Amino acid sequence: MTSIALRRARSWALDEELKRALEAARIHRGLGVYLYLLSRGSASLDEVAEFYRRASGSLENAREAARVQLGILERKGLARRVGNDRWIAIQRNDYETMFNVRKSSAAVISWARRDLRDLLGMSIRAIERDEEAFRKRVLKRTEKVRKYAERLAGKGYLDSALDLVAHTLLGVRKTGVLWAWLPGDIFIYYEGKTGFFHAVQSSYVGDILRGLGIENGITAWHTSRNDKSHWIVKHLFHSFPEARSVAEGLWELGLIRGSPPIWIKIYRGYVDEREAIFFAAYRQESSGLIPIASYWIASEMIRDPKPLNNRREISASTLGVRRVYEYRRVYE
User: Fold this and answer.
1) How many CB atoms lie within 10 A of CB 317?
2) pLDDT of the residue at 169
């Protein structure tokens, strides 16, 4: 075989390995990065970050995310750092057993798009081809949620109405808590499964809540009574993952978008000798933290104040990404 033919054969083999790594990364980012390292022999952080961008389709925090994935691979004994900025993969025959695909964020997003497809009765290709039909189907679903929320509010179950909106139109998990609604229609919620706070902006959802008679402030009181809202979720969507797919549709339409990071502080205190929970939000500027809003609510109004629970206070920075679990944890 000539040298040119040999180079072409190696290039083709490398392309096939890269395709395999990209396909794996769409199911599990860590598995994809590991296969990428195997295909390259070694790679720098910038090269892994570029692979991560291609796999995730996002430029946001790719370098930081790649660094975290490489650290995880090192702890699993699947990669080793060589020099200042290069990593090599450690070959192991049982590597597939070391990745929990069911709990990966990449798989969750893949399943979310499939849930969205199944929910709307449209293929992803059909969605991309017929945006107007897609928009009508999404808004038809949200209109159903709005009507049920209005019925609940009309009967005096405002907490259940808010809970229904949180778990459908905003996509908060069943185990999550919608903590606050800030000026500018920014919503702060906490995901118990991942341990992250998220901040999203949606005037569309804000208008629905205003129509229910709800005002800006702490919203974690939606956890106080949710049996009715949970029944409606099961009635309309059969499961909470399918209910969250409505929020995915609103993201696709641009009716929900991510918010810049917001620094929040939740702490316990007293108002007129009554125990209360305080919530303060700050915008992070180069000059420091700029106050956005602060609220308080009586402690007994919130049945499930996680992640505060029995602590005196917590502070955290929010994420403004679309159900992707990036790598900032809650700082206590």
Assistant:
1) 17
2) 94
